[in-house]
Fold these 2 entries.
Entry 1:
Amino acid sequence: MAQAEGVASGGGSGCEAAFGELAEVYDRLAEDLEPLAGECRRCGRCCRFVDGFALYTTLLERKYMLRAAGELAPVKSPPKACPFLSGIECTAREFRALGCRTYYCDSANAERRREIHEKYVREIASISERHGIERDYAALLERLVGGA
Ligand code: SF4
Ligand code: SF4
C-alpha cells in the first residue's frame, strides 16, 4: 500500500509479541460480538467519518494496521475518509481496529456492544503497557493523515 500522508512506519520486530496478543483479543472479541452484531449494508459511510463520526485508536492498533498495509494494494481514499478505505471496501479488514469491529450504525444491542468495546479498550491498553508501547489513544485521521 502507498503509505498515507503523515504515516510513520508501523510494526517492527519488537511489536510482534504485542501483535500476537492483539490478534487473540480480536478473536475473542469476534466471539463476544457474534450474537450482538448489528445490521450492516456495507455502504462504507462510517469509514468516511461523516456526521462528526471519528474512530479512536491506540498506537498499537495503528501499528498493527500499518504493518498489514505493507502487503496491501495502493489505497485511494477521499479526503477525510479512512486511508484504508477503497471504494466501500476496507483494505485492512483482518487488521482493523477495535472501533471498526464494534461500531454499527444499527442501534440494536448498541449498549451491550459499548460495554464490550470498553472491556476490550482496557485489554488493549494492558497489552500496550506490558510491551512498553505508548497508548496514544487518538482519532485515526489525526495520526494517519497528519492532522487532516
Ligand atoms: S455500519 Fe452502517 S454506516 Fe457502517 S458500513 Fe455498515 S451500514 Fe454502512
Ligand atoms: S480500517 Fe477499515 S473498517 Fe476501519 S475505518 Fe478504515 S476502512 Fe473502515
Entry 2:
Amino acid sequence: MSNGNFAAITRRQFCRLSAASLPAIAFGGGFFAHSAPPKQNGKRDFDILIQGGTVIDPSQNFNAQLDVAIANGKIAAVAKDIPANQARKVISAAGKIVCPGLIDIHAHVYEGVGIQGLSPDRGWLAKGVTTVVDAGSAGYTTIAGLRKYIGSTSQTRVHALVDIGTLGLVAGISGTMENMAYVQPKETAEAVKSNKPFVVGVKVRLSKAVAGSQDMEGLRRTREAAEAAGVPMMVHIGDTYSPLRNILDQMRKGDVLTHCFHPEPHGLLDERGKILPEVLEARQRGIVFDVGHGSSHFGFDVAAQCLQQGFLPDTISSDLTTRTAAGPVFDFLTTLSKFFCLGLRVDDVIQMATSNAARAFDFGLPLGTLRPGSEADVAILELRDGSFAFTDSLRKDRTARQKLFPAQTIRGGKLFEAPRG
Ligand SMILES: [Zn+2]
C-alpha cells in the first residue's frame, strides 16, 4: 500500500517514527497544555484523569503511553505521569487505547420515526462513538423533529444530513425518489439553513431501488440544494442506473461518496478489478470516499482490491440501523475492525474515524482531537488479540487477529454510564 496517494500513509509512518520521541514534542496551545507533568500545587485541578493508557491521537501524531486530564468539559493536558492527586476522579486505562471520541459520519438515529433508527446513546456512545451524523433519515419536513427529539435529548453529539427526498427513511419503502414531486431543492436548502449547525449537509440515495432511472435528476437537485445552503452533499452509490463517471462529474471538493466499497454494479473498479481513472481523479479533486457499510454496501473483495492499489477510504462509517445491528454491521467498532482483515492497523482506522471524519463536515468546533482546549470527547477501547471472524454484505467471511471492543466513553467531560434496561 506504499504507493497510496492518501495522507494516511505518510502520517502513519510519521506517527510510528515519532512515537519514541513523543514526550519531547511540545503541545500546541490550550490553557493547561503541557509537555511535562503539570506542577503539583496541592489542588485538584482536573475532573477526570485517564491514566496509563496508550494514547492514539492521529491529529497530533501521538501513539505513546500518556495520561489525559480533563477539566470543565475540555481536554486540559496530555502528558506523561500526571499525578493522580490532581484529579477528582481517576480512570485506569492500563493496557487500553485512549483516543479522541470516535465519529460515525453515516448513522441512522431517528429512533421511533421510520423503522430503522437506533438510539444514539445505546447504539454508539456506549461503544466509544461520541459524534454521529444521521445520514438522511429525515427530509425537510421531518428534520426539525430529529433535532428536537433526538439531537437535543441525547448525550451523543448528533448532527444530520437532510435527505433530498422529502420522505427520508420515514416511509420504510423503496422508490421514494422515483416521484420527483417528493424532491424539492428549495425547501431542502431552507431546512438546512434553519437547522445549522445541527445539519451539516444534504444526502441523496441514488440506487435504482430508491431513484429508479432518475438518479441524475435527483443528484442535480441535491447539488442545487447543497449549493444554495452552502454545505456539502453525501452521495449514496451502489446499483445505480447511471455509471459512476456521470455521478462523480456532478460532485465537488468536499462532497462525500458513501458506500465506496459496495459490491454492486457501478462501483470503483473496472471489469478487470482496476480502480477507474475517474475515481482517482475525483480523489485528486478532494472528494471524500466513505465506507458506509450498511446491509448491502460493503464487500471485502472490492475493499481488498482497492487497498491493494493504494486506495484507502478517507473515512470509515457504519450505516448502522435497527436492521443491520443484527448483522452484518453489528456496530461501529466491528466495522473498524473489519479493516484489520485487510491489512490496516489500529492507528489507521482511528485516524479515519477521528481526524479524517472531523474534517468531512463543518461541525462548528474542532472534533476528533485530544488537543488541549478541545472538547473532552474521549474513547477508551480494548484491542484484543485472538481469531475473530467478520462477515461482509455478501456474507463472505474473513478473519483478523485483532478486534476493537468498547471500554468507557467520556462525552463533554462526563463519563457515560449506559442506562439500565
Ligand atoms: Zn444509510
